[in-house]
Amino acid sequence: MRYFGRGHGACPGCGLAIAVRNVLDALEGKCFVANSTGCLEIISSQYGKNAWGVPYIHSLFDNTAAVASGISEALKILGREGEGKVVVLAGDGATADIGLTLHGMFDRNHDVIYICLDNEAYQNTGHQQSGLTPLGEATTTTPAGRVQLGKTGRKKDMVAIAIAHGSPYVATSSAVLPADIRRKVKKAASIEGAKYIQIHCPCVTGWGIEGKDVVRVGNLAIETALYPIVEFENGNLVTVRKIKERKPVEEYLKLQRRFRHLFVDPRGKEIIAEIQRIADRNAEKYGLDLKKD
Ligand SMILES: Cc1ncc(C[n+]2csc(CCOP(=O)(O)OP(=O)(O)O)c2C)c(N)n1
Ligand SMILES: [Mg+2]
Predict the structure, then answer these.
(1) Is residue 252 one of the residues assigned to a domain?
(2) Atom number of ligand 1 nearest to Cα 123
(3) Cα dihedral sign for 97, 101, 105, 108?
């Protein structure tokens, strides 16, 4: 049985489609999905082209956590919790910006698995920056030009925000790590309360890569330590994905059109150096380098 896929209209190689398929497989389809407005909704739920094999509701861009909290409470009241887990599938814009109202779900600790599908911008509307867009990325709202060279701020640390809310389970993963996604979703499903999993999802059009390079680029995000793969239970770091031989960030950046200006404009050098410092700090903070053990 396919719980997600048939008839979806995602680009070949789309990280969202890979991630969602693995999330639903891990739950063996026993779930209720609330999905915020964004690429996933557009590619999966257009009239006559439903790609969902599980109960699905499309919510506003801004309130998916509240919709999911309502479903979770309703199932309890009706005595139907056993029928499946309540899962949010939301983009990074929906999660880190307009839908940051998800703190209500965390505060009341509703029994929800909140999955942030992090393709690092508002891709559905044509690549505007979100709170999870990384430093230096050119988007339509942070263009590369005379005034600035892409995004000037840092990627928001949603993992820290979820932990600070006292979430019992917080993890990151990547569309290029299907087994890791499945393990973490199963783990989240075994824990009561509001869980948060952030999955890095390469976007072929927004990032300016080819479908065939999605796996390479996704892996480089991990191997450079720009996307640490970590897992927290009750605020304690329980696992990290170690990096055998850490790669310089240039190897990751240079493959993607969204960072191309950093290699053309002389001011790009300092931004690349700052991106490298971010990766170094990630490696230090989470103990990612295998060699240092
Ligand atoms: C209140 C509101 N503001 C803006 C929009 C327009 N809008 C629809 S989807 C979207 C971007 C979604 O970005 P993200 O959550 O990162 O999902 P992605 O498409 O990247 O997967 C925006 C700005 C909207 N639908 N509602
Ligand atoms: Mg997005």
Answers:
(1) yes
(2) 20
(3) positive
For residue 110, the 8-state DSSP code is -
Q: For residue 66, what is the domain's CATH number?
A: 3.40.50.970
Any domain includes 7: no
Domain that holds residue 230: 15-292
Q: Is the pLDDT of residue 293 over 70?
A: no
Question: pTM for this structure?
Answer: 0.98
* Structure-token match 């170094």, residue found: 280
Using CB distances shorter than 6 Å, the residues near ligand 1 are 37-40, 61-62, 91-94, 98, 117, 119, 122-125, 130
Tally of structural domains, the chain: 1
Ligand 1 atom closest to 132 (CA): 16
13 pLDDT higher than 90: yes
d(CA 62, CA 269) in angstroms, rounded, equals: 37
Which is the closest atom of ligand 1 to the Cα of 40? 21
Among 5-14, 50-59, 68-77, 193-202, where is mean pLDDT lowest? 5-14
Confidence band (pLDDT; 50, 70, 90) for 1? low
Closest CA to ligand 1's atom 7: 125
Residues 6+ apart with CB under 8 A from 135: 150, 151, 152, 153, 154, 155, 271, 274, 275, 278
What's the number of CA atoms in the CB half-sphere (13 Å) around residue 219?
Answer: 8
Query: Is 220 a member of any domain?
Result: yes
- 1 part of a folded domain: no
| Ligand 1 mean position, distance from CA 233 (Å) | 30
d(CA 176, CA 118): 13
**Residues 6+ away with beta carbon under 8 Å from 183:** 26
pLDDT of residue 7: 82
